[in-house]
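Notes from the 1:1 (GR / supervisor)

We went over the backlog. Supervisor wanted to see one worked example end to end before approving the batch request, so GR pasted a single chain during the call. The sequence is below; no edits were made to it. Supervisor asked that the structure be written out right there so they could see what the output format looks like.
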Amino acid sequence: MMNAAIQTRIAQLQIVKAKVLAALRKGENYELKTELNSEYKERRKEAVRRVIANMTVGKDVSGLFTDVLKNMHTDDLESKKLIYLYLINYAKTQPDLVILAINTFVKDAEDSNPLIRALAIRTMGCLQVQEVLDYLCDPLRKCLSDSNPYVRKTAVLCVAKVYDLNRGIADENGFVEAVRNALGDVNMMVVSNAMSALAEMNSMGGDVWRLEPQIVSRLLTAVNECVEWGQIAILEALIEYEPRDEKEAENICERLLPRLQHANGSVVLTTVRLLLKYERYVKRADLLAQFAKKMVPPLITLLSSEPEIQFVALRNINIILQRRPRLLSKEIRVFFCKYNDPIYVKYEKVDVLVRICSERNSEPLLNELKEYAKEVDVDFVSCAVNAIGRLAIRFEAAAERAIAVLEELVQMKVDYCVQTCVVVLCDILRRYPGRFEAVVTTLCEHADYINAPEARAAYLWALGEYSEHIPSVASLLGAAVDSLLEEEDACVQLALVNACVKYFLKQPQRAQALVLRALQTASEKCANPDVRDRAYIYWRLLSADPSAARTVVLAEKPPVRPENSSLPEPLLEELVNELGCVSSVLQQPARQFVYARTERAGVPRGDAATTADYDTQAAVDATPGADAAEGEPELLISF
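Structure output shown during the call:
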């Protein structure tokens, strides 16, 4: 009864709270409505600010639409911008009331102030209401030929919005042709915006424009005078152009080189993307060497930026290095981790370091990785130790030094470091069979610190594989067999059974009792069926034909091969063409997560994006595609 009374009281309080909040909201909107209709200009302006503030935080102020609309007739530019912002936000829910603002829009489009003219035409284009289009055509036509370049550059972008809403109206009124003509405008800001508008209209499925040699020359001239956003738009458009011959490709590359010195990282990466594309047409080795030399300093400079920019730069550099492996081979020290680098930057730096390393500079890198392996971050220590193993497997000359570094790390007896070191050491032993057997002695001396399942399985493999070199192998394996049933992981139990059988086949007289005890325990008392089956197979094989057992168990295994961390060639080419974009950071093609491109690629919207089989050896995992609203524009975000 007491609990029921308390719950009833809580429900009543919640109802009261909801009513109070509703009254407060109603009261606030009523107050704003009063202020918007005030006879004092400053009070109306402040009311508009409060309306936009409420709208920004998600409050519903659509009920004030007509009251806000009344304040459009003002000469104050700040108020006008806020009111236009309000109209854009609520135009789709109140399309009939938006028509009431048309006269003000048309009037503002002919205002003497170019900022107001541009603001009016931009807002009319952003409303995305079919009823507004009929009233937009005449003001837009005038703005496309306006004397002020700021108005013209706004108008050409508005054409793309009109084209998206109604292509027929855009063609009938000659707007598309006007945008094409704007490529010859004297103002480079207008040229870059016209370029963006045409590219956007092309992406909507229209074939409104194609690059021609004379236009390319014009754009290469314009790119030097544009702001960074305009430069990016022009450079993005040049990606689609195929040069007619080698001479034209050389000319384009030489004219692009100054863009590498730009302070904006996106301009730099887009320029690198173009150079990587056009250098395919260049045959002269001296020019290719010059282009490579020019690309290095700007890429290095990006690593002096904020951590987020560094991460993006490193992801892109990773792709570039797969295309040009020796590009940054002399700059290895630039990628050394700093103490204050975020962990995600450190991971990328280690990956790049391993990629650009050569036999000549492997020793300083191994020394650097050894320092990383002494840090306190468990995951980063594992990353550093694995990098040491990758270098040892990749370069035979570095294997001996890598072994020494790993032994030193094992002797530090840091638990989480020892586990990874044991696994990596066993991989190196498999890579170079018959060498470095002495390292197994170090593992035996530190057996008490090996407790992770994967590490214990690797350690037991080493005991069985090199049992003839270990004087105390019988006692070590015997202790392991005694605790066989206590092992929770099946991989450790299987490795122990394998090690005992190997030891028996190499030294039958000394290991007979041990292998019998191990097989009996595994087959009769072990709960895991895989371990029991393995023990039965070994028992019957040893009983029936010991020589056959020797052939099977002690067969020569293929050595571990260097890890291939490169992307499949078709995917790499696709990502090189999208360098500097989100796809290069995710290392997935844009067609997998940009919906318009996904549909053109034949992947249904909302289904899991799947990567095509680039070749029979390599496939790339894809992330699930997300649901999207109808009409969502295709966007490829550049950094």
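Supervisor's comment: Residues 2-36 form the longest helix (35 residues).
Batch request approved.
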